[in-house]
Amino acid sequence: MVLALEQVGVAFGGFRALTDVTLSVAPGQVVGLIGPNGAGKTTCVNVLTGFQRPTHGKVILQGREVSGLAAHEMRRAGVARTFQAGRLFGGLDVLDNLACTGVGLGLRRSVAEHEASALLNWMGMAALESRAAAGLPYTDERRVAIARALMGKPRFLLLDEPAAGMSEAEAADLAALIGRIAAELGVGCLLIEHNVGLVLSVCTQVVVLDGGRIIEKGDREAILGSRAVREAYLGTYAEAA
Amino acid sequence: MPSQHQLRRRSAATTPLLLGLLLLTFVLVALGLGDRAIARMAAETLIRVTMVVGFWIFVGNSGVVSFGHAAFGCIGAYVSAWLTLNPAMKAALLPGLPEGLAAADWPVLPAAIAGGLAAAVIALLTGAAILRLSGIAASIATFAFLAMVNTIWANWTPVTGGTSSVVGLDRYITPWVALGWAFAAILVAALHAHSASGLALRATREDEVAAAASGIDRYRHRLLAYTLSGFFCGIGGALMGHFIGVINPDGFYLGLTFLMLAMLVIGGVGSLSGAVVGVLALSIAVEGLVRLEKGIAVGATTFALPPGSQEIILAVAMILILIFRPAGLMAGREVMLPARWVARRGT
């Protein structure tokens, strides 16, 4: 009962964004995906959510190959995602933003709004319901985007740099929220983050990408002790300097 | 205690009624003035409301500009003409009509509905191809569709009469008939906008990528709106034909396309009220300017604008609106009863 990539490769013309990537997320599990800029993290999420077709390999959802499904079909199959930029529906209010996912999943509008209201309550954001999505403060925007992705109880949630630009305290709140999503809702989460501290605090498994390949996989200790990881990160720092 | 969101939804339900009342007042005032020309202007304006509201169902909710909707008007007008024209006349004017159509002598109402349905079917079939494209590419394809329909209609002489006009349509359109259809269009547009499909379509307008990530099948919702939209533009075309009594393929080409776009832009594409207000504003302005061109007598002297100034003044007005009020007169807002009133009634 997992969401997985099996030996996935993605090539854009001559450029290989991903090579032979195999990873999996189980329900209730939080898997971290880290790596330097340009390592292929977002491409991984795009492949897992139907936004990018793999050039090689398979996407597997609950034992079934789903490599050819379109993005909206993957969402209906239970794989939700957020984006680096919040990408809320700016002209709609917060409740309608969530209701959009509800109707996208085939609910009637009133049912979708009811569920949206309950979900905002669960996340402690009931007060935002009638606010316009455009112009929300940054952290609220991120949280609404997560709420929108949680509509219809997806089995998997892929978070693309949800903590980018957050303060330490805000990132800690986010970590707690991700923990609740996994524990209380049983959703399997894949967390892409640059904030390695955040990833190590909530993830039981971490996958490290560099140059489109997995260079390390394992629990916190394995990652902290890995030479390959240190080199990948130090390498980028060296290049940057 | 209902939330603000629910109150807003309830207020929004009053929009079609208020717009209907606005149009009713417009008709009563126009008829009250007792001037035949003004009564005709009112009927023509309401026909345009039907068309532009139909147009808005697709453009307003999807955010995709269409240049093809005048073609649906063309289809609606000709289908209604084929079904209602006197068979003897059709035998002379349109010898290529298939037997069923050649012999048809339908009452006007079912013929108008058939015109709308024919336009809707064509919208469904062409939309199935066009709406696979995204954004601007789809817009360009709708323009190609408009040109194709015009070329076919101008050259399929035995069936359409070609570039020479088809005459003798029953002129049954009174301001009241036009008001009925305009209100029907407004009601359907409002129901669609409030439906799950309407909301999903607006999500794709706001952000296509996020909409896909929300499970929304953009293609399906666009195609539904396009078909519905085609229906009312087809109805509008049929009404226009029976209003003037004469139809010609060029009456449903670039001139009409840009008039519909101008009305939508001036009123504001962001709301249904914008579509209605845009038609009223532009139609009334044109009527006023035409009268000024003819001249107004004040005592012994007659003041008149030089001929042709109507177009120039309108162009300047449109430019000013685009500069100072780019979202249109209504700027995305709807006319609705204040939430306070609705709350009192609802609780």
Automatic annotation (TrEMBL), chain A:
Record carries keyword ATP-binding: yes
PROSITE patterns, per database record: ABC_TRANSPORTER_2
Organism, scientific name: Gemmobacter aquaticus
Record's keyword terms, sorted: ATP-binding, Nucleotide-binding, Transport
Molecular function GO terms recorded: ATP binding; ATP hydrolysis activity
GO cellular component terms listed in the entry, alphabetical order: plasma membrane
Name of the protein in its database record: ABC transporter ATP-binding protein
InterPro entries in the cross-refs: AAA+_ATPase, ABC_AA/LPS_Transport, ABC_transporter-like_ATP-bd, P-loop_NTPase
Record-linked Gene3D superfamilies: P-loop containing nucleotide triphosphate hydrolases (3.40.50.300)
Domain ABC transporter span(s) in chain numbering: 3-236
Automatic annotation (TrEMBL), chain B:
UniProt xrefs under InterPro entries: ABC_transp_permease (IPR001851), LivM-like (IPR043428)
Topological relation to the membrane, as annotated: Multi-pass membrane protein
Pfam family, one: BPD_transp_2
Record GO terms (molecular function): branched-chain amino acid transmembrane transporter activity
Keywords for this protein: Cell membrane, Membrane, Transmembrane, Transmembrane helix
Compartments where located: Cell membrane
Membrane-spanning intervals of the chain: 12-31, 37-58, 70-88, 108-126, 133-153, 173-193, 223-247, 253-286, 312-331
Entry's Gene Ontology cellular component terms: plasma membrane
Designated name of the protein: Branched-chain amino acid ABC transporter permease
Organism taxonomic ancestry: Bacteria, Pseudomonadati, Pseudomonadota, Alphaproteobacteria, Rhodobacterales
